[in-house]
Model the fold of this input.
Amino acid sequence: MGGVTIPVPRGDASAAPRLADLAVQAQVSEATVSRVLNGKAGVAAATRHKVLAALDVLGYERPVRLRRRSAGLVGLIIPELTNPIFPAFAQVIEQVLAGHGYTPVLCTQMPGGSTEDELVEQLEERGVTGIVFLSGLHADMTADPSRYLKLTGRGLPFVLINGYNEAVEAPFVSPDDRSAARMAVRHLVELGHERIGLAIGPTRYVPSLRKAEGFTAALESMLGMAPDDAERLIQRTLFSVEGGQAAAGLLLDQGCTGIVCGSDLMALGAIRAVRARGLDVPGDVSVVGFDDSPLIAFTDPPLTTVRQPVQAMATAAVDALVEEIDGNPVQGAPPSGSWGRTEFVFQPELVVRGSTGAPRRV
Done:
């Protein structure tokens, strides 16, 4: 490891890190750190990225020889930044893209701002190598899928997260929304709840549709409820705190002691609705969210939620996009009854915290 030039910390030339510090931070050997810092071959791109990330985290400037040219720009289009699950996805996607040598370009939609189509046009003008769509128009069953077919025709690779459209031949990455709803209902049933409602977004969105299907199937199989009765326990509003509060109010009017929500933000709104009536969570009403967004574990009470596997989904999406860029389209089985190329479906995980409990007996 002789001859290694240790980077100088920004603003403190007297405290250069040891190879051991970088190795611990990057979770690699000191020999690997040495090879990366000396610009030697034989180190995997992902491992090299870990070492560079360690330099950044510890606050040290990268040696000039390590500043490689980007493999290209990749656009990432997300709906908003106010819902913490979207920044969480964006961070992982950008990290994985950087590991492959690509430079991410984050584009955020907002009311009154650029539309998805306008953002795509701007990205194409900048010569992006590919695009990642997160919860975009592909998830809206009323949207025209021809916009994506045109991208395919122009030879621009892309991947779509959270949503599926059988008319689009591209890689899709989604959580198992039906399973998410089933495990939330099962948790509440096992606690003793018999009147359970669902608060989700508009029907036209694929995740909403799938959660509703999983929810009604769970009520039918676990509580013996008729399909029409189960359907009446679904309130469709907006994926927001206000939407969750409005939906929960209507579900409380129907006597629900357990409420499953389509997002963590909706769940926080549901808790607000419960408390506005002088009731307690979880003493009187249990609430389950979806996403396991950052900081959700620290709400009052800590939120029981179905965790969306962000790391695995984001990594799979980027890996699929890189394969598309390299001319090796990923193959897989499409959802039953459809003919789109493939959808990678990831299993969510129930995280039990303080917002659910046994119903109060009267």
Observations:
- The chain has twelve helices and twelve strands.
- The first strand starts at residue 72 and ends at 78.
- Confidence is low (pLDDT under 50) at residues 1-6, 10-14, 333-340.
